[in-house]
Specification:
Distance between the termini: 60 Å
Structural class: alpha/beta
Order of helices and strands: EHEHHEEHEEHHHEHHHEHHEHEH
Strand order of the largest sheet: 2-1-3-5
Shape: globular
Largest sheet: 4 strands, parallel
Number of helices: 14
Radius of gyration: 20 Å
CATH class of the largest domain: Alpha Beta
CATH architecture of the largest domain: 3-Layer(aba) Sandwich
């Protein structure tokens, strides 16, 4: 049994249950790095160029942390998962950036639906063949992984965080969050890896819940709704993460009508800078309070928490509660 390392960063905040179940179905032992901390970020910052964003530095640090503990690193190269949509170039290049820094092999199956509709199933087959020559067993492991992933997405749509959803998949019993009458409703929008990594978000979901707010995230919405809300634009966004970010924000501004929106993005993310201009315009038009938090490795917890507390006070004042 080989040890497969999966860095908990970037796309793995979305697809970890899928990758983990698939590799385990192929007889591999999956190892995931410990939660992000300052030492991990510093390790990643030294490994790749300064121009990369904080999430990429976290991915590099997580991979290097796992490097001495595993037999190989599993970092799929997800170029495009849907026709007309593409991923961030930095994410696409991560296997190459890390290959020159890590001692262990990096397995990076390529998925690019834009150019090859069969690239996903080919990636599954080629990955599986490296561990099991029996094609039937490979596809059996894949379909079991898909079942686990669909269950995971269902848990996310019931307002659990990825950490909570993974805990449920591992057998823990958690109470499903449900809004109560007159409860403050806050939409937390941003890329999955920014919202859920406790280092970049400072565990903002838990902090908002302690403030008495019910928290919505982009994961609470189906892909069908995300696609529908993107049609508000004359020309739809082709960056996969920006589509989700914009669609979720528009849904919470126009459909769910939350009390406020907190948007989190990482410094140096050029695509988010453009997307948030659209979101700010629409939130201002509909008079939905919005706060934009930009984080990097130098962001201090005290300043960020002060801004969150001030924003919550504004919401309560607007509702006539203070």
């Amino acid at each position: 049994m080989a040890r497969a390392g999966i860095p908990l960063a970037l796309e793995n905040w979305t697809y970890l249950p899928l990758f983990k179940s698939f590799l385990e179905g192929l007889g591999q032992k999956v190892i995931i790095n410990a939660p992000t901390n300052r030492a991990l970020v510093e390790l990643g910052s030294k490994a790749i160029v300064d121009e990369t964003c904080l999430p990429c530095k976290i991915e590099a640090g997580a991979a290097l942390t796992l490097d001495s503990e595993v037999d190989f690193l599993f970092i799929p190269r997800l170029v495009s998962l849907k026709k007309g949509v593409t991923n961030c170039p930095k994410m696409i290049a991560m296997p190459d950036l890390l290959r020159n820094r890590c001692k262990m092999d990096i397995m990076d199956p390529l998925v690019d639906i834009r150019r090859d509709k069969k690239s996903l199933i080919r990636a599954v087959r080629e990955t599986g063949e490296k561990f099991n020559p029996d094609g039937h067993q490979v596809y059996k492991a894949w379909y079991k992984a898909l079942y686990t992933y669909h269950h995971y997405k269902h848990l996310l749509r019931s307002h659990l965080t990825p950490r909570e959803a993974n805990a449920v998949l591992n057998g823990e019993n958690l109470v499903q969050p449900k809004p109560v009458k007159n409860q403050i409703k806050i939409a937390l929008v941003g890329h999955n890896y920014n919202l859920n990594d406790q280092f970049t978000s400072f565990d903002i979901v838990s902090r908002l819940r302690k403030e008495g707010a019910f928290v919505y995230t982009p994961d609470s919405i189906s892909e069908r709704i995300i696609n529908r809300m993107n049609r508000m634009l004359e020309k739809e966004i082709f960056w996969i993460h920006e589509r989700k970010l914009f669609g979720a924000a528009m849904y919470y501004i126009y459909r769910e009508r939350v009390d406020g929106i907190i948007a989190i993005t990482s410094f140096n993310c050029g695509t988010s800078a453009v997307t948030f201009e659209f979101i700010n315009h629409e939130s201002e038009k509909m008079r939905v309070p919005i706060m934009h938090l930009v984080v990097d490795e130098h962001t201090q917890e005290a300043g960020l928490l002060t801004r969150i507390e001030a924003f919550m006070s504004l919401i309560k004042w607007k509702r006539g509660e203070t």
